[in-house]
Amino acid sequence: MAPETDYLLAVEGLTVSFDGFRAVDDLSFYLDRNEIRVVIGPNGAGKTTVLDLICGRTKATAGSIKFDGAELTRMREHEIVRAGVGRKFQTPSIYEDLTVFENLEISFPRGRSVFGALAFRRDSEVSDRVEEVARSVFLHDQLDRSAGTLSHGQKQWLEIGMLLIQNPALLMLDEPVAGMSVSERVKTAELLRRVIQHRSVLVIEHDMGFVESIADKVTVLHQGRVISEGSIAHVKADRKVVEVYLGH
Amino acid sequence: MTFLNRKDALFILLLAALLLVLLPMVLEPFRLNLVGKYLTYGFVALGLVLCWGDAGILSLGQGVFFGLGGYCMSMYLKLEASTPEATKIQSTPGIPDFMDWNQITELPLFWQPFHSLPLTLIAIPLVPSLLALGIGFAMFKRRVGGTYFAIITQAIAAILTILIIGQQGYTGGVNGITDLRTLNGWDVRSDHAHNVLYFINAGLLLGCLLLAQYVRRSKLGRILVAMRDKEDRVRFSGYGVADFKIFVFCFAAALAGIGGAMFTLQVGFMSPSFVGIVPSIEMVIYCAVGGRTSLLGAVYGALAVNWARTSLSEAFPELWLLALDSLFILVVVAFPDGLAGVYRRYLDPVLDRLLPSLRRSSLAHPSAVLPVEPVVSAE
Amino acid sequence: MLMGYSFSDLGSIMAMQGFAGLILFSVFVLMALGLAIIFGQMGVINMAHGEFMILGAYVTFLTSRAFTTYLPSLFAGYFFVAIVLAFCAAGLAGMAVEWLLIRHLYRRPLDTLLATWGLSLILQQVYRSVFGAREVGVDQPDWMMGAANVTDSIQIPINGLIVMALTTLIAIGVYVLIFRLGWGKQIRAVMQNRAMAGAVGIDTERVDRLTFGIGCGIAGVAGSAFTMIGSTSPTAGQLYIVDAFLVVVFGGAGSLIGTIASAFTISQARSTLEFFLSGSMAQVVVLLTVVGILMLRPQGLFVLKVRR
Predict the structure, then answer these.
(1) Which of A6, B99, C154, C186 is the most exposed place for a label (fewest CB within 10 A)?
(2) Per-domain residue ranges for chain A?
(3) How confident is the model at residue B379 (pLDDT cuts 50, 70, 90)?
(4) In this structure, which topology does domain A9-246 adopt according to CATH?
(5) What is the CA radius of gyration of chain A?
(6) Does A118 touch chain B (CB under 8 A)?
(7) CA B21 to chain centre
């Protein structure tokens, strides 16, 4: 189907319909290695659905998603993760009953099979890496705390940390700064600028200031289709984009 | 041992002392045998802690696995008791008496392996696990869980009971498999045998408790808790969620099977009344009363509920059911963590103050984390 | 030819067993409707549902006794009075249970299952103390015991027809209540977002209590119908709870038509098979088939598409 490319992620002809309603309609886009792409669009444009499709949470009706040469539409969720795709959910999704350390440790990419998990040992490699990641997400002095007691912003950071420890080649973030205080936002932007090095990132975000500060390229979705793509300046000047946002 | 901190070790030793020293010293043989019977439910309760308490998978069919283990054991014992000499008055000597009564003239194929003790011992945990594997594979791979899973397991308990009762010629019907005598030549009916079996049972239970504790303290145990909380996050951290559920369900089934086999040995028979819907839910009750997130709690729960049932039913035959059921409802509504939850909330802090040397909380136990007031980020 | 029966014989057998299954079908539908309302709309598993049904059966029993003693001339019509009383008694008991127990557990579905199980045991014990452990049978008026001859070889029992008519009425009533009047919307609104439903002026506690009460009331009516096919005993309800749950799940929870279709399929399969196999084996075969299908199709047989 899709020709071999040197893109990290190649989405082609992607379509999904729920009861006849096409949430994503014949969507194609390409993501380079080490590129930072922000997906924007009005509510209901299908942004989160695109992330769901890439990470296997929703099965595509038609089309292909090629990641590093592998066809993701035929893989199960955990296989997609192991192939190197990490995904952060819109609302913080962490294990409230476990400590911060345990949250990060579970995400450490070793012992992921049943018996691997039984034999898993908490050696220095694990604890060093957990500490390192905890430091980068500002949680190194909270390691023994139950994650359920963290603030909203800290939970978001913890989830980002849980992705970092997997060291994914493609990082997908769904509204990483939503619901954060202004100071948390600043810290998160700094965090993201640091972690997005050496990997490709796909971000959904509404906060235009934040988008401008990190994006290489912007894709604008509307009703499940791409209506504009390019640099921020290009997209901002695009009449169709302006219509979509003002027409509502 | 890294999976036990000092406090765990202390409490497990206390349980061991209670089971292996104190109870055998103070109880007469008949009572001790009763306690041994109660403890066999402890095996099931241990499995439920992992399966239900940790992973959030409520099985209402644990009686099925308990029964399968028990039937495996009783089939072996029955064959040993049905030698051609002992059954020479039958029209077909050498087969179990109930088969003869039902005009069956040849031992059915599925009974054949139970001539062998090693095969029987393998079958006791294996048969329940294989059934659990089949059910788990069908259900968890399709992401069926929660109440649907509970209902399906309950239906399976109903089916197996009806099947056992309906197929008397092969299963002994509603009376079950009775009149069991010897295990590899050793008479299991004597007081001495009961005494020995009690210690074997208690030792096995403690062994299973340590094994379960090992599983809980491994990363697998933390993944189970994580799955109960945020299944999708676990999946998107690269784990095959269904595999973990299948594993823990099979593990619980194997434990229940061992419990069932020990039950048969100590009580001397096995019948469908330990398989169906009612006994299956009662096993959940033991676990709930003791504390669904505490292995020790589950064992004490099985002991306490059964002990209360026996003594109350002797003293107040009319009222004990009402009392037990009301207690159960109260526990579910007001104390979802059972006796262990009450202990953790009220006694544990006191103990920590009295014996500070026991506190060693490099990393709190997953489910031992008590709710703390949420702390707003220091900003 | 099958097992020595000719095809016309088989046709008659199917038809007769089919009509014999009418009351079983009605009991299933009524039990399952009540459960489906409570489970499908509120997400609560009511394990004591069978005991509410038996409450209805005991009320029917008491009504028949009262008519025999005080109003023997009106005995022919007692059944209709009994149905109303059974509905009210089971419904009020259900509302009381909701207030005492269920409302504390809305966020913990597995715990409602356990708590209502405890409740079912308590109710059984209460029945045992009040009515005795023995089974009681209810006398039916003569005119209901007859049968209508359709052809030479096919007869339809009259009581079956009455219960069928009643079931149809109740099913239509439930349909109107849930899908035509605003009630179903209110129930779903409360279930999906309690706080928001409260904020837009829905009395959430009242909706919960009435929904649970109606579900239990319908179980009470099922109990009235049940007195025609079985003897009422404290534990009789427990035998039906698994079947009733399977009917609900098999039909796809929340789908009224699905519930009826699956009740029909299961009860008919069972009563037809009972002619060829022993009663217990017929039950095993049907239950196994249902569980097998549910393992392949967990969303139920009659739900076409599920959006995850």
Answers:
(1) A6
(2) 9-246
(3) very low
(4) Rossmann fold (3.40.50)
(5) 18
(6) yes
(7) 23
